[in-house]
Amino acid sequence: MWRQVLALLIKELLTVLSDRKSRVVLIGPPLIQLMVFGYAATFDLNKVPIAIYNQDRSAASRDLVAHFTGSPTFNVVANLKSEKPIDDLIDSREVRMVLVIDPRFTRNLLSGHPAPVQMIVDGRNSNTALLIQGYANNILNDYALAWNARKGAPPPPAVLDMRARFNPTLDSHWFIVPGIIALLTQLVTLLIVGMSVARERETGTFDQLLVTPLRQFDILLGKGLPSLLIGGIEATVIIAATVWWFDIPLRGELLALYFGLLLFVVSVTGIGLMISSLAVTQQQALLGAFLFMVPSVILSGFATPIANMSEWVQYLTFINPMRYFLIIVRKVFLEGADFSALTAQYWPMAVIGLVTLITAAWLFRKRLS
Fold first, then answer.
1. Distance (Å, rounded) from C-alpha 3 to C-alpha 46?
2. What is the tally of structural domains in the chain?
3. Which has the minimum average pLDDT: 5-14, 27-36, 93-102, 316-325?
4. Residue ranges of E strands in the chain
5. How many other C-beta atoms can be found within 10 angstroms of the C-beta atom of residue 98?
6. Which residues contact 341 (CB under 8 A, 6 or more apart)?
7. Which of these three, 151, 184, 215, is where a domain ends?
């Protein structure tokens, strides 16, 4: 049995690797997506265009402007002399924020009264607006503490001293890039296994395969093992790039990560075999893979926290293997998790893998009957 399965495995690998289009799918898109996600996908803000309307024009207000000018978060693109251009600048998206300094700013500071500074923020993207507001508030707080220190005034009674665990610099790449391991591994595995049976049907070699001594289970095994092997290699390349190219620390056990990877690839292979069993052509298999891929990514917590989703949607995430592997990969990379800390993520993927493989075998047998 195993000699026959091994022969089918070698045949599948040679079919995939000898086809130029398949090689392009395996190598090109994952590398491109890794670079795009790694460098372009970020929750951080840099060089946000802002305008400043300084009505005070004193040394104190110029010092505050210097705090914003020297920040890597903001890029001062306009210094206004009146409030008339504010609406046009915001409407045209030339700036995302306008900082308005009151003409009584210095006088209020010297007299010990509150010296409010107005921030007019483009609120069309609420998440970006909240981030801009948070960064600006940090700069204002730093300025206020520095002012009190220079004037010998007592500091505020309560000062926030924030320290971030697991990601000290709060670099969003540390959160996004490990998740790409799950995203691209699922994509490649689905494409390989999803089109395997459909390709045989299109070329007419599937009927020849059925008259061989191979049993249905052997055929499914021979079709599924290449995706396990290729998915594992693909994930290894991405893990290596995450550690050595993007300098993201791998703090946990590598074996714990690879055990989760094995369960994840098995469960995705089962889903791919289900798609492949139902598809007649490679185009149908490709469409089925992407119909599964998009909701899977959205419901995985890759970008949107699952806790923020509607309650009924959260229940759907329990049947999504990518949800569990994302937790595993981020816990291993950032929290230093080991096997014992990941048990709650292992067994659901094992169940999903078992159910999908059994369902794929049943669908495969039904299509043959």
1. 57
2. 2
3. 5-14
4. 48-54, 74-79, 97-101, 117-121
5. 22
6. 331, 335
7. 151
Closest-CA residue to 227 (of 274, 264, 190, 181): 190
CA terminus-to-terminus distance, the chain:
23
Residues 45-86: pLDDT tens digits?
788 999 999 998 888 889 999 999 988 889 999 999 888 899
Let me know if residue 291 belongs to a domain.
yes
pTM over 0.85: no
Domain final position from 87, 120, 151: 151
Q: How far is CA 245 from CA 66, 159, 249, in A?
A: 35, 37, 11
Q: How far is CA 277 from the centre of its chain?
A: 30
Strand partners of residue 117: 101
* Alpha carbon distance 260, 125 (integer Å): 36
Please indicate whether residue 317 or residue 36 has the higher confidence score (pLDDT).
Answer: 317
**Tens-place pLDDT, residues 301-342:** 887 888 888 888 899 999 999 999 999 999 999 988 999 999
Residue 224 sits in the same domain as residue 253 = yes
State the residue range of the domain holding 61.
48-151
How confident is the prediction for the chain on average, in pLDDT? 83
Cα separation, 136 vs 117, whole angstroms? 10
CA distances from residue 116 to 49, 69, 105, 110, 226 in whole angstroms, order as listed: 22, 19, 7, 13, 64
The rounded distance, in Å, linking the Cα atoms of 244 and 241 is 5
Q: Using CA atoms, how far apart are residues 326 and 186, in angstroms rounded to an integer?
A: 11
